[in-house]
Design a protein that fits this description.
Chains: A mainly alpha, B mainly alpha, C mainly alpha
Helix content of chain C: 55-70%
Distance between the termini of chain C: 25 Å
Oligomer: heterotrimer
Order of helices and strands of chain B: HHH
Structural class of chain B: mainly alpha
Strand content of chain C: 5-15%
Largest sheet of chain B: none
Helix content of chain B: over 70%
Strand order of the largest sheet of chain C: 1-3-2
């Protein structure tokens, strides 16, 4: 039982690490938000699940914490993405063609 | 509860993740970069606090984790509103 | 103040609050239960008029099944999203071609739209940016070029929409 819990804990920690690595590697703010939010959320839930396997009597509060994380973490990242979008930052793209089609799209909308 | 090697390794990896987040916070070219790094770090720290609770065997730290998560969420939303620039 | 129309609303709020209380205390002792019932009824009576966000909830037995199926679908999508993201972060060439696309939803209630936006944020390669009326603005990390509104809606939102519409309007 403890081995399973430890493996889940390690998996969660690795996902948190990958999220932070994505934070460093991604080229612009939108991609950083994506990498950071997703990986950190699943990593945290895996860690909480591992702790729940180690201490089965704590599951009530652990369910509260993970439900809270699942609900608030995408909200805060969406709010941040909206703020960045409204302050006029355009998404990064590494091809001329892509940026041209993007301009076409946003031009149509406004 | 004494931690075995796997759990110590997990704590080390979480520490490395927090370090990477801190690097992004230091070099982040714009304010939103720093905020998203703070957001990611706070989610990670919330999970790490439950791990601390497991290591010390005391469920008081679970309440700390819950309140920490709530406060960091409110903080990120408030800063996002500031970045947005006063529009509704 | 309480008429037949919003009795469901009050009961829903009360049972949600009581459930949260029981999770937090994680005991079924009589004094905890009594305090929880007292606090939950006071809070639900005071705050019910302001919480009109819960208006679209369907109060049918099938809704419970729909919630469970939605949760299963959601967790599968979340895990897939993370392996997808891990692959992108770890590969040296960073295979991304991001773009902003629009998605249309037929969910009417604000809670349903918010849940849909949250789900989109946590699933493979997509991040919901803005929400107005029935359009959700989505940042897609690997968008095919020149994708139409209908195609994007089908690719990103329709699976979740189908599951959410089982328990929300």
């Amino acid at each position: 039982m403890r081995l399973i819990a430890d493996i889940i804990l390690l998996l969660g920690a690795v996902f948190c690490f990958l999220g932070a690595l994505g934070l460093i590697r991604m080229p612009d703010i939108y991609n950083r938000i994506q990498a950071g939010t997703k990986a950190a959320t699943l990593g945290s839930i895996a860690i909480i699940l591992g702790v729940g396997l180690l201490y089965p009597s704590w599951w009530g509060k652990l369910v509260c914490i993970s439900g809270f994380l699942l609900f608030t973490s995408p909200v805060s990242s969406s709010v941040l993405a909206r703020a960045v979008y409204l302050s006029g930052v355009k998404p990064w793209s590494h091809k001329e063609k892509a940026s041209a089609s993007l301009k076409h799209q946003t031009g149509e909308k406004s | 509860m004494t931690l075995n090697y796997l759990e110590q390794l997990a704590i080390g990896i979480i520490g490395a993740a927090l370090l990477l987040g801190l690097i992004r916070m230091l070099i982040g070219p714009s304010a939103p970069d720093r905020v998203i790094s703070a957001d990611t770090m706070s989610v990670t720290v919330t999970a790490a606090l439950t791990l601390v609770a497991a290591a010390f065997g005391s469920d008081l730290y679970l309440d700390v984790a819950l309140v920490y998560g709530a406060l960091s969420f409110v903080g990120v939303v408030a800063i996002a509103r500031v970045i947005e620039g006063g529009k509704a | 103040m309480i008429n037949k129309h919003n009795l469901h609303h009050h009961l829903f709020l009360f049972s949600t609050l009581l459930f949260l209380w029981l999770l937090l205390t994680s005991s079924l002792a009589m004094d905890e239960l009594l305090a929880g019932i007292l606090v939950a009824s006071i809070v639900s009576l005071i705050s019910a008029p302001y919480l009109d966000i819960f208006n679209g909830v369907r109060y049918t037995p099938m809704a419970v099944v729909a919630v469970l199926r939605y949760l299963g679908y959601f967790f599968v999508a979340l895990i897939r999203a993370n392996f997808d993201m891990a692959g992108r972060v770890l590969s040296p060439s960073l295979p991304i071609s991001p773009a902003v696309v629009e998605v249309q939803t037929r969910l009417k209630s604000r809670l349903g739209q918010m849940l849909l936006a949250n789900s989109i944020t946590l699933t493979p390669g997509t991040l919901s940016v803005d929400l107005n009326n029935d359009r959700i603005l989505v940042h897609w990390i690997a968008a095919p070029e020149g994708i139409s509104l209908e195609q994007a809606t089908h690719d990103i939102a329709s699976g979740f929409e189908q599951h959410i519409s089982g328990f929300l309007e």
